[in-house]
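Figure 3 (text version): structure tokens given as input.
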């Protein structure tokens, strides 16, 4: 995918960059595969905590047609049996994506989270081609097939583990949380199970028909922050349906700090009902990033508008390298946007909100 990369001036020092406003505080070249430094405006800092990158990939570094079992992502690893294929048929940020469901066969990609974070941010894109439907749904519609349960698709699935380090889905010593799950006709929820540690479910937080368009990529971004009043925040974005956000602080023992409440695995997609529910459906995922720790949401994204809410597409394939209060270093992956020049760079804080730069949510890339 062509990106028409735009070079930026490299300042002799951060002070000169700020004084002249060169590159709007961006030091380096904004281009695929480059590392840039972003300077604060001297008023609004970035904080001094760097999130831990648990997983980062746009699947372009893998071999087309290979199984994830034998593939190595840029950061992280796959756990156990992950027979998903790397496909070059569709892509969002790079040239390839992950095949989750095709030919009536569902494949679960299991990803290990080696640092077992309690606070976590997960960002990924989902694609269902035109002429297909969500699992259990009629093609190009949001109507469930006759005789099939609508609860047929757990899209992203966080889980803890047990004493043998196997993925545990609400068993005797663990818990799970779907981010999100389809749980009724045209109804998505945030929900899961946790033995002895409570249960959280936000039923019908969004109707997929309001955010998803067949034949377009859909962004899902989820922040779980137990240290911030149990904050859970979910965002979606697609070209046709625009930006959606749900946010709620919950008081629930599910967000405790004991070892069996630390996330150890992420599964994408987590579960699909088999048989007729999968006929006429295909699902692909791309640009997966998972960050953990107290600053899990601290990151950089590039959008096609000056505010997140007004964007129709985002470049989320950007890895956080290091963060101080005055400087933010990030690695730029492959760009899904038509160019870098003329688009807008956002630095997101620990709650996923844009850090202000000279009174604006974003910085225009020259």
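Below: residues designed for each position.
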């Amino acid at each position: 995918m062509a990106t028409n990369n735009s070079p930026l001036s490299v300042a002799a020092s951060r002070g000169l960059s700020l004084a002249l406003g060169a590159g709007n505080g961006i030091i380096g070249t904004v281009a695929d595969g480059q590392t840039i430094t972003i300077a604060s405006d001297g008023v609004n800092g970035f904080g001094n905590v760097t999130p831990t990158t648990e997983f980062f990939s746009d699947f372009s570094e893998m071999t087309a047609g290979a199984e994830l079992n034998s593939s190595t992502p840029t950061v992280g690893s796959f756990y156990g049996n992950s027979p998903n294929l790397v496909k070059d048929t569709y892509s969002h940020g790079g040239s390839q994506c992950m095949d989750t469901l095709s030919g009536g066969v569902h494949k679960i990609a299991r990803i290990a989270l080696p640092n077992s974070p309690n606070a976590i941010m997960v960002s990924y894109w989902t694609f269902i081609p035109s002429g297909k439907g969500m699992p259990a749904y009629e093609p190009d519609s949001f109507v469930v097939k006759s005789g099939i349960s609508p609860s047929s698709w757990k899209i992203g699935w966080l889980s803890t583990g047990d004493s043998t380090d196997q993925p545990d889905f609400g068993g005797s010593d663990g818990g799970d949380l779907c981010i999100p799950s389809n749980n009724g006709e045209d109804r998505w929820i945030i929900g899961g199970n946790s033995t002895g540690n409570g249960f959280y479910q936000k039923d019908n937080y969004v109707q997929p028909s309001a955010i998803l368009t067949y034949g377009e990529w859909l962004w899902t971004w989820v922040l779980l922050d137990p240290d911030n009043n149990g904050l859970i925040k979910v965002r979606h974005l697609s070209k046709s349906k625009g930006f959606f956000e749900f946010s709620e602080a919950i008081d629930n023992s599910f967000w405790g700090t004991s070892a069996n409440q630390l996330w150890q695995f992420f599964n994408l997609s987590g579960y699909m009902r088999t048989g007729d529910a999968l006929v006429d459906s295909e699902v692909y995922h791309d640009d997966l990033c998972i960050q953990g720790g107290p600053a899990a949401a601290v990151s950089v994204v590039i959008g096609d508008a000056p505010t997140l809410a007004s964007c129709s597409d985002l470049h989320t394939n950007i890895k956080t390298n290091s963060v101080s209060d005055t400087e933010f270093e990030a690695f730029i992956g492959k760009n899904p946007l038509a160019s870098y020049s003329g688009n807008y760079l956002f630095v997101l804080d620990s709650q996923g909100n844009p850090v202000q730069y000279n009174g604006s949510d974003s910085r225009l890339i020259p």
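The first strand starts at residue 26 and ends at 27.
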